[in-house]
Amino acid sequence: xxxxxxxxxxxxxxxxxxxxxxxxxxxxxxxxxxxxxxxxxxxxxxxxxxxxxxxxxxxxxxxxxxxxxxxxxxxxxxxxxxxxxxxxxxxxxxxxxxxxxxxxxxxxxxxxxxxxxxxxxxxxxxxxxxxxxxxxxxxxxxxxxxxxxxxxxxxxxxxxxxxxxxxxxxxxxxxxxxxxxxxxxxxxxxxxxxxxxxxxxxxxxxxxxxxxxxxxxxxxxxxxxxxxxxxxxxxxxxxxxxxxxxxxxxxxxxxxxxxxxxxxxxxxxxxxxxxxxxxxxxxxxxxxxxxxxxxxxxxxxxxxxxxxxxxxxxxxxxxxxxxxxxxxxxxxxxx
Length: 335
Prior knowledge:
Layout (H helix, E strand, L loop, with lengths): L2 E2 L10 H12 L6 H7 L3 E6 L8 E5 L4 H10 L2 E5 L4 H13 L4 E5 L16 E8 L3 E5 L7 E5 H9 L10 E5 L11 H13 L7 H11 L3 H4 L3 H14 L8 H12 L5 H30 L2 H26 L10
Antiparallel strand pairs: 1-6, 2-3, 4-9, 5-6, 5-9, 6-7, 7-8
Organism: Streptomyces antimycoticus
Protein name: Lantibiotic ABC transporter
């Protein structure tokens, strides 16, 4: 028996916004991926390292599922989240929605999915599920992972049951839009200023602009941080550019969000933020290239240069967020 929902199954660049796009288009609300990312106040930064980690981690967005919660709050969407420790109940939660014609978002560990090319554990991966048969689940993932894909029901169960960093307890969720679909225009400024506030005032030195500054100091030591720089440094750079970030550690997505906003709001602060994030996106890609080169060549000077650019990026993004935070005093939309 096959149960499949007819929907617009576009995949995009980032997993969580890809899933959100599928769920919202099914509700009649079609927003661009950058707009979803921006309205969810998705941009952030974290530098994380510990003795238990094989290599430092650079993250460019808020923690998994926070973007979804932010977006639902911003647009007044009804977000239904279900979690359970029971695999049987977890499947029943999903199947009930599919059979009722509602696609479902799932948070899981991508390592176990049949179609996933890179076998790395990531418990914060999000997909949209729109159907199943006796053997397979029908999913929408990013374009990079194939867009509309299938995975065996067994592999899906393993992915949902996985435990470890960033995992959730068989989390599934649906979104329902109000009868009168919300316009994003009135929600842009609160989303941007909330993102700026968090970035400018991080609680610890690993986050926000302070985290970028810390990364600039630490990246210079990365050749000594690993026994296998030829593997670990290019892998870190690959995660920055291609692991669902949209390139430039999510800065491309935020740049494009701000560009879209400038068509809706007439604000010098917004144009300044957009110009600075355009510059920042280019520099993040340069940092990734230098890290890759350092891993391949063992040349410490590549990391010295990367560290200097990260120092500049901390300053640029701080200034950009300062400008964007001033949107709180903005008077009105573009006319």
